[in-house]
Design goal:
169 residues, alpha/beta, 8 helices
């Protein structure tokens, strides 16, 4: 799986309420509506200007705070192709993978890549190609690659059931 897009860069400690404002948690259920509010308190122009495949570069502890999935859903449906960070909150990382949004820990790439750069990520070979150089990371295990390729854990499980690989009981 390859992803190419422009970079949006944010700092340390961006929590789930900043990624998806908590005031919408119980009023918005449509992913497209969630996407329209992604990062609105941090970067009001983000939702209107993000393009499919764009990449977020983040600092330390991206996605800390609550465990709600809207923080991932809003970015995925806004078109974000991947998030590269110095580090992730564990629940956000798991929610990202479960929803088919690649989350890559790479402190050196996060420090070197600048806003507006065009970056390509090859999840199979573990490469981030940026104007500042090529950065390597351990490719995701096959099981995670399959979840990401299928668009998330639920679509992946449905596919495996349809193919008869697992029983639906």
């Amino acid at each position: 799986m390859k992803i190419t897009g422009q970079v949006w860069k944010y700092g340390d400690g961006v929590n789930t309420d900043v990624i998806f404002p908590g005031k919408y948690t119980y009023t918005l259920t449509d992913p497209a509506e969630m996407a329209a509010h992604a990062l609105e308190d941090l970067d009001p122009g983000f939702a209107a200007n993000v393009q499919p495949g764009d990449i977020i570069i983040a600092g330390k502890n991206w996605g800390n705070g609550s465990s709600r999935e809207q923080a991932v859903t809003s970015l995925k449906y806004a078109g974000v192709g991947a998030v590269i960070a110095v580090s992730f909150a564990r629940i956000w990382f798991r929610n990202a993978i479960n929803n088919g949004l690649p989350a890559i820990v790479h402190p050196e790439a996060a420090a070197a890549i600048q806003p507006g750069d065009t970056v390509s990520i090859d999840l199979e070979t573990g490469q981030i190609i940026a104007p500042t150089g090529t950065f390597y990371f351990p490719p995701f295990p096959a099981s995670l690659q399959n979840i990401l390729t299928d668009g998330g854990l639920i679509p992946h499980l449905r596919k495996r059931i349809e193919q008869g690989e697992i029983n639906h009981a």
